[in-house]
Amino acid sequence: MMGDSTGPSPDDALARLSGSLSRTRRIGAVVALVAGLAGLVFVGLLWATEPGALPGRTQVAFGGLMALCLVWSGYGGWALTRRVPMFALDRVVAAWIALAASVLTTAGLVAVVPRQGVASVVGAVLIGVSAVLAVRAHLRRAALLRRKRELS
User: Fold this and answer.
1) Fewest Cβ atoms closer than 10 Å to its Cβ: which of 1, 21, 27, 44?
2) pLDDT tens, position by position, 15-36
3) CB 34 within 8 A of CB 95
4) pLDDT digits (tens, 9 = 90+) for 40-89
């Protein structure tokens, strides 16, 4: 009959998938993306708000750090869009990682950047966007769990 299912449950099927779908890999890609973006914002804002002209070697160092952060965020973004799917729970975890990174980045910016107003505005935007993403991820997961219960 069409309605009878003798195959594995969805949870069992997910458990047997390849290593590219492992939770560690999915969360690692999120961490790479978020850490890269946070570092890029932190170093970029620190460099942009320096009160005077920096020596050439210091500018090269800042540029190198920003390039490294851009590479990590690029890798994380590529991994998330091309290599590993994000499940509903992963999106919730990713949102909390992003929120924690935003709070830490904001604290670092406020402590280090000479122009406190700019640091506060950038930090508020980071935290606000992360909080919105966290709420959306929770709502989406709750809706999916509700559907699962209705179908069971």
Assistant:
1) 1
2) 666 565 677 787 888 899 999 9
3) no
4) 999 998 888 888 888 989 889 999 999 999 999 998 888 888 776 778 88
